[in-house]
Amino acid sequence: MANLTHLDETGAARMVDVSGKDTTEREAVAEAIIVLSGEAFDAISSGDTPKGDVLAVARIAGIMAAKKTSELIPLCHNIALAKAEIAFENIPEKSAIRIIATAKTAGRTGVEMEALTAAAIAALTVYDMTKGIDKAAVIESVRLVTKSGGKSGTFTAPPLRSLRKTPAAPLRGRPTVLMGEVAAPKIAPSAPSADASRAAFRNFMTSHRLRATEWAKQAGVPGSQLYAFLTGRLRALPDDVIQKLVRAAQVRPEDMFR
After folding, report:
1. What 3-state DSSP class applies to 174?
2. Where along the chain do its domains lie?
3. pLDDT digits (tens, 9 = 90+) for 66-106
4. Would you call 226 exposed, middle or buried from its count of C-beta atoms within 10 A (0-12, 13-18, 19+)?
5. 24-156 placed in CATH 3.40.50.720
6. pLDDT band at residue 3 using 50, 70 and 90 as cut-offs
7. Catalytic: 128?
8. pLDDT score of 159
9. CA separation for the pair 141, 138 (Å, rounded)
10. pLDDT tens-digit profile of 141-188?
């Protein structure tokens, strides 16, 4: 038990006495990755969710969690934070969102737990905000990425091995093989190009701040048709729908798929 600083010589839990440590600048960055269904990911990207702006709420939740870490983790010190920040990175090919939490202070103990707590609570908030669309979303990892300051110096985590290769929730319309049934034929080799077009279309919507429901309404096309393409139930948008979307967005057709 000698290496477990939160246990005394008898094995009893304790808060570590840090009064003899030097006051130094300390910073920690943690991450959480949440993998969603295509439908939930697109809804977040377009801002079209029943509960409103998912990432704005998750950002505030993460910052609040960082400040309350000592109330949630029993043996953490109450730290005066100089900085608590939440950022997001979309991973469209995995329908995932990477949450990056940063905590900073000048003190006698580190802020790793503050950063980790912020990342975890932000990820849980994303789940809460989208569970009406996707109850099978998975928070794949919560981990420390870097820390600096203090006696132990700098730490940098090794690269994450991989994300899940399949979405947490199956895409609607994908054939399910039951025992005793014959599997559906494999999709033709052109499938990757369809996936690439779909990913490019999502990126176009995100970069132009287009919400699926509002864009479809402006273009005079069924919103369900747009969502069917975004979630993989529809392999390609009909030409007449593309032309209407192009006119509403005032772009060229090729701009939406590159």
Report:
1. coil
2. 24-156, 191-257
3. 999 988 888 887 888 999 999 999 999 899 999 999 999 98
4. buried
5. no
6. low
7. yes
8. 79
9. 9
10. 899 999 988 777 788 988 766 555 444 444 444 444 444 344 444 434
- How many Å apart are CA 201 and CA 54, to the nearest integer? 21
Residue among 71, 70, 74 at smallest CA distance from 13: 74
Tell me the CATH number of domain 191-257, given options 3.40.50.450, 3.10.150.10, 1.10.260.40, 3.30.950.10: 1.10.260.40
Give the list of residues 6+ apart from residue 142 with CB closer than 8 angstroms, or none: 30, 31, 32, 116, 119, 120, 123
Residue owning tokens 């895409």: 171
Q: What is the DSSP string of 213-249?
A: HHHHHHHTS-HHHHHHHHTTSSSS--HHHHHHHHHHH
Nearest C-alpha neighbor of 123 from the set 83, 96, 103: 96
∠ at Cα 202 (200, 204), nearest 5°? 70
From 128, 134, 195, 240, the catalytic residue: 128
Predicted TM-score of the model (pTM): 0.58
Q: What angle do CA 103, 106, 108 make, to 5 degrees?
A: 105
Instruction: Summarize pLDDT for 176-224 with one digit per residue, the tens.
Output: 444 434 444 443 444 446 778 888 888 888 888 887 778 888 888 887 7
Residue 54 has which token pair? 């998912």
